[in-house]
Amino acid sequence: MEITQVLSNMVLVDIIIGGSTGERTLEADDFVREVGKMLPPSTFSWVSKARTDAKRIILRVGATRRVDNRVRGYFVPLDRAQAVSDELRMLRDSFQTQKAEFLQELPNLGRVIN
User: Fold this and answer.
1) Long-range contacts made by residues 14-23, C-beta under 8 angstroms, separation at least 24?
2) Other beta carbons within 10 Å of 70
C-alpha cells in the first residue's frame, strides 16, 4: 500500500478550545492584570478538561500529526471522521454552556487585588 493511498483515506482534524491552540492554558492569576481580581486556582479547569476530552476522542481512532516536534492536528480515518465529528460537536456544546456559566459568574468570582 502506497503512502498516497493511506493519506487519501484520512482527514486532518484540528481543535481550538477556549480561544487557545493548546500552547498554554489560562491560569487564575492571568486575570489579575485584566480585571483586578485574583480568581480561584481551579477557575479554568473546565477548559483543560475539554481540551483533554477532545484529544481523547480523536486519539481513540486517530494519530497526531507532528511538525517540528509539535502537534499540528490529528489524522483520523475517513470512515471514522463523522463519528468523531459528532462527539466533538457534543463536547463543543457542553463547553459553550460551561463558558456561558463562567462568564455569567465572573463578576462574582475571586477577590479584589489592590
Assistant:
1) 14/72, 14/73, 14/74, 15/51, 15/54, 15/55, 15/58, 15/74, 15/88, 17/47, 17/50, 17/51, 17/54, 17/95, 18/44, 18/47, 18/50, 18/51, 18/95, 18/99, 20/47, 20/51, 22/51, 22/71
2) 11
* Global confidence as pTM: 0.73
At 40, list the grid cell.
480561584
Query: What CA dihedral angle connects 65, 67, 50 and 76, to 10 degrees?
Result: -10
Coil vs helix vs strand at 69: coil
pLDDT digits (tens, 9 = 90+) for 39-60: 777 777 888 889 899 999 999 9
Q: Which helix (H) or strand (E) holds 111?
A: strand 111-112
